[in-house]
Amino acid sequence: MSMYPFVGHHMVRQQLSAAIGADRLPQVLLVTGPRGVGKQRLGLWLAQVLLCTGPEPRPCGACKGCARVLGLTHPDLHWFVPVPRPKPGDADKQVDEVAELLEAVMAERRQTPLWSAPDGMLAHGVSSARLLQRQASLTPVEGGWRVFIIGHAERLVAQESSPEAANALLKLLEEPPRRSLFVLTTAEPGLVLPTIRSRATPVRLGRLQAREVLEFLAVAKPELATDRVVAQANGSIGAVLGSAAELRAKADAAADTFLDAVSEGPVRAMERVLRQAPWQARGEFTTLLDAVAERLAMRAQRALGPGGRVSSVNVAGILSGVDRVLQARERAQGNVNPQLLLAVLADELSALEAG
Amino acid sequence: MKFTITREQLQEGLTAVAAAVPTKTTLPVLANILLEATKDGLRLSGTDLDIAVVTMVPAAVDQEGAITLPARKLVELVRELPSAGIRMTTQGEQRVTIECGRSKFKLLGLPREEFPSFPQVAFDGSSKTTARELQKLIAHVAFAASTEESRPVLNGVLWQLLPDRMRMVATNGHRLAKMEIPMQSTVAQQAELIVPPKALEQFRKLFGPDDEIEIGRSDNHLGFRSATTQVFTRLIEGPYPNYEQVIPRENDKVATVEKASLMSALRRMSIVASDQTHRIRMAFGDGSCRLSVTTPDLGEAQEEITVSYEGEALDIGFNANYLLEVLKYMPTDEVRLTFKAPERAATVEPVGWDDPAAYLTLVMPLRLLD
């Protein structure tokens, strides 16, 4: 699967395109702006422009170069994201390990081209700097440009243990090899090492317009493409991803599958129950129970409401179902096995549905 | 794609190409080998993006086409097949049937389009040499390249192609090796390339000493080509430091030593030397060299070996490992060491080498503390 279309930032794109056209694109860019507005995505877009082999205007979006940038398989595109610290040991092995960790992240992004902010402990460490340098010291694989995207540049940590790696990185940014572009991105430019900041040309991305967020969500997350979500997003796609709205939509979908499974009989119900992990009853599982209770309550409401066919639906049964779910929710706050809890609940609900 | 090939030929081709296939890969398709059936035979290609190997093996091709197949599985499979004709037929872009005797396999691959395109290297026939000449250069020089990442350019081996000779130089800043050989063959285009040692190692493995090698290059790549096999490599971005300025021209103190006795003495001394610096002291005087080492928390050692020495007496410190390393690659039994002063670079050269090549190594001294 390839990256979702890049939305917004037309002015910046125009300026950068013009700079590329005039062959005066600064080789080290520091892209700043609020979280989730497409800073790293701008890096990918620049990679696409530079590595596009199709006709003008670039990127054409159809050539092999564009396809491989968007599929994250272009050999001259190197995307660095913060990764866990490699195991202590031989420096070369650590660099290889970082390469593998990065590849695992890329493999994930090829599958689902959406990402959220990295965990607090992850960083660009010495080994990442070494890997970057190793890749930058060689000529391009395909003879064109080499593009290095370094996301969360504020996590390029000062390398007291290895001044060589830090100095080498600074030297690289100071005198980038010809036909190489370094796109550093950060939402917190104040935290980027001043030595790095001073070597980069700043590019500022603003918040997206509501219709641009909507446009993106319509393609990437249709279930979230509502005006309410967009209003809350405040011009940041990243704010939507991993937000309450997204978790909510996920729980709603899970509740629907659970209730459908219960109606489809014990075999289906147990199949669904077995997919529930037997640990961690709080958190996601509790949200699921909330969503199930709400769904049942909605059913009862519909049944009782004007035009509801009270006779054909067992409203009392549904309401005691809600009761059971709420009991289960209460138990879920204690030390219980959520899989068993869900199994009992499924059993009870199907009995109520039948009776 | 449809072709028939003997097991031996397929295996030979696969062995050459598999060397370039990375064990751990950043792009899934790189774990695969590209098979292309053409009217001239079967072309096999493998790459880790730094180095690419392409080889041609004879095959009876009924239908041209291409597919990529997982390298490791294909190599294992072909190794286990009986010695008979192997027939490969593709179904669509990603499936292939392999039949050999009474065995039949279906393998899943990846479409040809996903395989990276190969560098466009111009082989214009202007630069030719034999693998023997190049291998000699590699064997005597590549070891000296740096493995530290602080100066990437030193991780490579400098290869200069001049009208009548070629030269290779490698250094890590502490020791340097340089070899120059007159070219019997032709080089029309002068060039200065910084080549990753990994590529040179691959070259050494893949070509026989008598192979005629054609050298081709583009802006970013270097290519070697024999009749059947091609090796491409990315280069390291230059410029290479001006090494000429560190090669001493005025060393007036000359010692001629038997290599084996110097090496064994150095090995003995280095046991007692500091693990960090490997520093040993060499005191050259009339007809002898006294080696000694004192490590405060370990102990000390002395040894005297016979040398023929001309010049004033000299005390000089070295990292024993660097000296041993350059001595190891000296092609003659006797070597000549030259010095100027305790803080100036020393050179080590072969004595009486019956070869047109000129070989020189250089070792920086260590400061003696007392």
Task: Give structural notes.
The complex is a heterodimer of chains A (355) and B (370). Chain A has 355 residues and is an alpha/beta fold. Helices cover 53% and strands 7% of the residues of chain A. Chain A has helices at residues 10-21, 39-51, 64-70, 91-111, 126-137, 163-174, 194-197, 210-220, 227-233, 237-240, 244-263, 266-274, 284-304, 315-332, 338-354; strands spanning 28-32, 77-80, 146-150, 180-186, 201-204. In chain A, helix 11 runs antiparallel to helix 12. The model of chain A has no long low-confidence stretch (mean pLDDT 87). Chain B has 370 residues and is an alpha+beta fold. In chain B, strands 14-11-12-13-26-25-24-18-22 form a nine-stranded antiparallel β-sheet. In chain B, strands 6-2-3-4-17-16-15-10 form an eight-stranded antiparallel β-sheet. A five-stranded antiparallel β-sheet of chain B has the order 5-1-7-8-9. Chain B is elongated and about 80 Å long. The chains are: A alpha/beta (355), B alpha+beta (370). The A-B interface holds A 64, 73, 75, 91, 96, 99-100, 102-103, 106-107, 130, 133-134, 136-143, 164-165, 167-168, 177-178 and B 24-29, 49-50, 113-114, 116-117, 119-120, 148-153, 155, 196, 218-221, 234-237.
Give the topology, please:
The complex is a heterodimer of chains A (355) and B (370).
Chain A: H1 10-21, E1 28-32, H2 39-51, H3 64-70, E2 77-80, H4 91-111, H5 126-137, E3 146-150, H6 163-174, E4 180-186, H7 194-197, E5 201-204, H8 210-220, H9 227-233, H10 237-240, H11 244-263, H12 266-274, H13 284-304, H14 315-332, H15 338-354
Chain B: E1 2-6, H1 7-18, E2 32-38, E3 41-47, E4 51-57, E5 60-63, E6 65-70, H2 71-80, E7 85-91, E8 95-100, E9 103-108, E10 128-130, H3 131-141, E11 157-161, E12 165-171, E13 175-182, E14 191-195, H4 197-206, E15 212-217, E16 221-225, E17 229-234, E18 253-258, H5 259-272, E19 279-285, E20 288-295, E21 299-306, E22 308-310, E23 314-319, H6 320-328, E24 334-339, E25 346-350, E26 358-363
Antiparallel strand pairs in B: 1-5, 1-7, 2-3, 2-6, 3-4, 4-17, 7-8, 8-9, 10-15, 11-12, 11-14, 12-13, 13-26, 15-16, 16-17, 18-22, 18-24, 19-20, 19-23, 20-21, 24-25, 25-26
Helix pairs in contact in B: 1-2, 5-6
